[in-house]
Records
---
Amino acid sequence: MKIIRSINLMQKAACAVRKSGKTIGFVPTMGALHEGHMSLIRRARKENDCVVVSIFVNPAQFGPKEDFKKYPRPFAADVAKCRQEKVDIIFCPGAHEMYPSGYKTYVEVADLGNYLCGVSRPGHFKGVATVVAKLLNIVRPDAAYFGQKDAQQVAVIQRMVADLNFPLRIKVMPTVREHDGLAMSSRNAYLNREERQQAVALSRALRLARSMVSSGTRDSRTIIAAMSSLIKSQKKAQIDYVAIVDASCLEPVKRIARKALVALAVRFGKTRLIDNSILKP
Ligand code: AMP
């Protein structure tokens, strides 16, 4: 397994792989790898000749008051996990390699970045779209793997890839959960014991939404109210949003007449957790 820090060397390595007729599967991450990341890596391993995993904590997607500095960076453990899954290349550029002085170009997917998480994280999806566009240009994979856990990120990237004609397939993998239903996230490590116990309310609220829809409820407001009151019964939980939206354009859906996305963000102290589920009437 190669560990590459320079953009130039990464481009050369990917170019050599392509020239030899092999396919490249790419998994972009911010590291602190858990089973959610590993499910993407394993799928990429199954479907491609060469697997590239990027580990880059992207400063452009963190707000000034967010956790960029304290975001976990257990690099040696991440390398060991990648080695175990037979990853071919870890691409881990420094922030100055990706954003050298004089850097000026950003990618913004109109509208999609303003809903849901975009409300309390202005500029976040511009940072995400920019770094993913850069990484796709550097690696030029045949397929890139993303998690349904970050449904808004998926919507933004699918739109960007279609609009800017990136020649690759985007593969979306299901959310991997802890035994009690909490979606795996590198940020779960911030939770204290009490918060961790109460955080199970997110997946419970999503389950409640699914069961209301399967027993005939179609009014989004009714479902959102029931979910909110379940979450609020946890003392430490502060709701950022609970929303039912169209999964591609992310616009709110009033009545669930076809497949919709139910998404939520909840704070426990300083930790903000997100989760989502598809609702099928
Ligand atoms: P991150 O390191 O948080 O930027 O995540 C890197 C990739 O892993 C993204 O495509 C995420 O959606 C995906 N991911 C994160 N958590 C999970 C999870 N619990 N299940 C599946 N995919 C995940």
Note: The pocket of adenosine monophosphate is lined by residues 29-30, 36-37, 39-40, 146-147, 149-150, 173, 175-176, 183-186 (CB under 6 Å).
---
Amino acid sequence: MRITVVGLGYVGLVSAAGLTTWNHDVVGLEVDRTRLDALARGETPLFEPGLDGLLEEATRTGRLRYTDSVESSVPQAQVVIIAVGTHDGSGGWQTETIRAALQAIVPAMAPDAVLTIRSTLPPEFVPEIVGLAHRLREEVGAERVPVLTNPEFTRESTAVADFLQPDRVVIGILDDPVGRGVRALKRVYRLVDAPILVLPAADAGMAKLGANLFLATKISFANELATLCEAFGADVDAVVHAMSFDPRIGGSFLRAGIGFGGSCLPNQVAMTIRSSREAGLPTPLLGAVDGVNRGQRVRFVDRMSRMLDGLAGRRVALLGLTFKPGTDDLRDAPALTIARDLIDLGADVVAYDPMPNARVRAAALVPGLQVVASVQAALADADAAGLLTEWPEFAALDWGSVRSLMRGTVVLDGRNALSPDAMQAAGFDYAGFGRRIPAAEPRSLAGRPAITSHDGDVLSEIASAATGAAAGKS
Ligand code: UGA
């Protein structure tokens, strides 16, 4: 089929390249010239494992081309997929991007084409789309086109595999009176070995949002469980492992630590709370999910401060800056909040991340943060190390040698990624989140100032409650 993908960010570019593997002829329409030029030179403008190879192959077979011209990409398309960004970058939705894309694209579509929105949408905006699309067709005297949604469930770092082997494909119907749109999208995905669920668009949108809200809830649950484990002398890894045998629970997304970051989970929790509040709907569970998550960042700083008996003048090495491994994305990365808070409390903070451009951007985003180009340079003479992103190379370090590199012995593992036994055997004063560390001594909280965070006052409350529960541990 001839498909035009509008917007070549994470979602659009992965979709465009992925669609070619199912023998579709795809045009990527992008207004950002820098991005287009990079693609034209054969460069991948974002870091996503496996995407280079996919783009190379798509270009080699001639199935994927890029353009910034609506005229040379939209009228020919049988299916137009809109994949522009809908997050405003500061915890809010933005729908201007979708409106602008519709205004540019819809009048130029062929009468037998199908319009599909793949971007994640605020639920309250969904009904507006049909009216806008129909009005834009009427203005140019053209017939209406079917309007559908097709939410994506790809994760950064595994986006290619998630696209090519999805668990499910969700098609949302906004306006498709004779089923032409659904038939077209089923043809788009005909080679996919996964259930294709056809739902009203409101349900499809909530199925997308609901999945992310549930994943966020699982993580905050695991973090609260970790706090309980600390208070009652249990080990969260063992507890979650035992729980995971129950097929109703499963074991994924229950890893405790400094909580979730990235452009999706934190934003979508926050934006759902905000739009529900505006609609007069209480969302106490999501409020707690957000509060626990933000509190984990404060708890990390608080725990580091306790382990070092104060942060002023202490050299702290942070290992990892990105919001998770396998990406160079720093959006709402817990590491940035933690670095700012440590610096505010007087620590001398030096950070390393394997992604060079993440290091450069982090240095620009966090005043006072020193970034270095090797993990050894970060750890040299450090009083403490804090692991914030579980890049495999950190677990693979020879921690025995690291011990002689560092000045101090404190290692705080914000992702529960290191072996407590091995760390203790190497001579470290090691702590994680919810992990039982037999030899760890309780530290006094007396006389320490309350920790405040860049993320707002509510956090110090959460942190002090959390610290109270955790005071006998780590
Ligand atoms: C998330 C969803 O997982 C995707 O299914 C969805 O398509 C995507 O958002 C989206 O809406 O576009 P992503 O933001 O790439 O994907 O990242 P995740 O893999 O979900 O991780 C989010 C955060 O949770 C990371 O900071 C990670 O470190 C943290 N996490 C994850 C935990 O703290 N504990 C866990 O057990 C799992």
Note: The longest strand covers residues 169-175.
